[in-house]
Design a protein that fits this description.
11 helices; mainly alpha; membrane; single chain; PAP2/HPO; transmembrane helix; undecaprenyl-diphosphate phosphatase
């Protein structure tokens, strides 16, 4: 289990590690392509309220794919617990580190506004500042959908909630595929699908100017540590339960 979780974690770590290796960093004047709009649609699957729909979609897939419905319900409950736990950790760490997002740092630099002042404002006021900035300055390379997205995403950068969300689902899929995959090969296909989705989610956070590579790397490791502990508890509990049932 540890090896499999670690391999999938390493797969996602390749995204920030590659950008760090080649020295890539987000720039405000970066040209966007149609592929970036696809990335935006993917990143929205991890944004509120669409993230709730994503959770429901994945839960439904697992409920349908696992024939033993009691087992399916336990899996879904575990998944819900994991998502809530990791998002709670994310929220706590954001408050502690209070790191501005890349695009907010750019706005601060070009408008002579301190980031501390920006984050002292209400969420609605921060959204207005972002919209006013892009509407008052000629940014032909920033489409309206991206302006609206940035206006909604004015929280702190570190760690990345979208990354933790995506990595959480991938590691849940990986772990349960390991536990139940021999009896249910369909779970392996689900894991493959979630892998592609998760990779694109991480890429989207960099391309859209929402996070730094180190945010993604650290967030991925945080989710990995949580799920090592989670699946250790699941396997340990299952082992004790099976020994107890065998004695009866």
């Amino acid at each position: 289990m540890l090896i499999r979780l670690s391999l999938y974690t390493l797969l996602l770590c390749l995204v920030p590690l590659f950008t760090l290796t080649i020295g890539w960093h987000w720039q405000e004047n970066m040209s966007l392509t149609r592929f970036d709009y696809l990335l935006y649609l993917i990143t929205e699957t991890g944004s509120v309220p669409y993230a709730i729909i994503t959770c429901g979609f994945f839960a439904l897939i697992y409920f349908v794919s696992i024939s033993n419905k009691k087992q399916a319900i336990l899996v879904i409950i575990t998944m819900a617990f994991s998502v809530v736990l990791t998002q709670g950790i994310k929220s706590g760490l954001k408050t502690v580190f209070a790191e501005p997002r890349p695009f907010i740092s750019a706005i601060s630099e070009h408008s002579n506004m301190m980031t501390e002042y920006f984050y002292d404002q209400s969420k609605e006021k921060r959204a207005n500042i972002v919209q006013h900035y892009y509407h008052s300055v000629n940014f032909d390379n920033v489409p309206s959908w991206l302006v609206e997205h940035r206006a909604k995403e004015t929280g702190y950068s570190f760690p990345s909630g979208h990354t933790i969300f995506a990595v959480t689902w991938l590691l849940l899929a990986t772990g349960f595929s390991k536990i139940l995959g021999r009896e249910n090969p369909k779970l392996k296909w689900i894991t493959a699908f979630i892998s592609i989705w998760a990779i694109l989610m991480l890429v989207s956070r960099l391309r859209l100017g929402m996070h730094y590579p180190i945010d993604l790397l650290t967030s991925t490791i945080i989710a990995w540590l949580v799920h090592i502990g989670l699946f250790y508890c699941i396997i340990h509990f299952t082992s004790i339960r099976n020994k107890y049932l065998n004695k009866i």
